[in-house]
Predict the 3D structure of the following.
Amino acid sequence: MKNATLTTLFMLFVPHLALPQENISLHPENSHYFFYKNQPTLLITSGEHYGAVINLDFDYRIYFDELKANRLNLTRVFTGVYLEPPGSFNISGNTLAPAPQKFICPWARSSEPGNKAGGNKFDLSRWDETYFGRLSDFMNAARDRGVIVELALFCPFYEDAQWEISPMNAGNNINKAGKVRREDVYTMDKNGGLIDVHENLVRKIVTALKEFDNVIYEICNEPYWGGVKMDWQHHIAGLIRETEDSLGVRHLISQNIANGSGIITDPHPAVSVFNFHYATPPVAVSQNYHLNKVIGDNETGFDGNSDSTYRVEGWEFILAGGGLYNNLDYSFTASHEDGTFQYPSSQPGGGSKALREQLGYLKAFMDLFNFIRMKPDSSIVTSGLSPKVRVHVLAEEGKQYAVYVFGKNQSSLAMKLPPGNYLVESMDPVSGKYTSRKKLKHSGGQASVALPAYGYDLALRLTAEDPTGK
């Protein structure tokens, strides 16, 4: 009672400080992973192309139901500073290319016609409350289904065609802001008055979403394109933190580093999640594991349409020690929010019901482990791999091992294990079925772990049993 009374008095005299809420955070015992609802958490999904809020034709409840049905717990969404003309990147049914009059963004429309994407121009000094109502409803619908939202605040402009239809372009707003080249939008000094627009938007969104425990703020999608400057990124990260400190809340901040891989240097102290795109093989994890932060792969594609390509990318990345995986799934459109769109082969990636099921098997497999006590260890498999076979191992030495084998014609694994009795379970990543269950009695040193017949890839779970063998 006494402590409760002191807390109440403290809150009365310091009203801007809220009691701690259980936002998604880094796990306190192993910050390579997340902590949410008092549980260690991996974020794994196969999500739509980031237009679920800005595209009024998109029914996100149906979409979230499909994610939940497959145990998937992440989506990524753009704010509306960026949209795409139909046909961009050969994407059919692109959720980031809303139909005319179906685009909504943080800023209100003015009474002046002439917006190049249709409708009236925007007023960057006024907020569209309909947008923020939709954003709040989107966050609630995600939270109700256990889905974390990675909200990318900004995005560079890859081509002039995208910059020409942005609300921040001077031709589309009445504020005379943004009369610059697309390469100068995200700079501290050449932005044509847009830095104030950026700052106001960050403060508004961070304030609007302060009560949600299921949001991660991504500074900017793919800032290594389109002239985005690092000092601008650090400024935005600092502004998020400053704004949240004034609100008495704190959410994770993520930064998109590179396509493929890259060594992170001089990271901003407010950033807790470092994302890569098309991160296969998962070199980015080992390059940056020493940072003790989450390493993510939050966009895939440009490698054909096959489910197996993106299933393997997910399994390899997570078993290499990654904490977040988001396949970009083109089977979600505004008319097929359940993910049943039959996209053409020209699409720059994949996605399907079958793939979502397979990524759900990955999530379920990892949830069998106490993975916060595990770390990647490539030295455990000592020798004897067939050509083109890759193996990834997460291990808590002598207690639990998660193993992923990609590539054919591997009949056994030579594994360095402490003495003990182990249960070895094999799982087919395609069907999710366990194909064998055997015991291994090992006296120490190198163990030969027999593999069952498998097709394209195989997952193993090794767990230590009673050392007496009883």
User: Anything to note?
Assistant: The longest strand covers residues 434-442. The chain has two domains: 22-371, 377-464. Residues 268 and 382 are 37 Å apart (CA to CA).
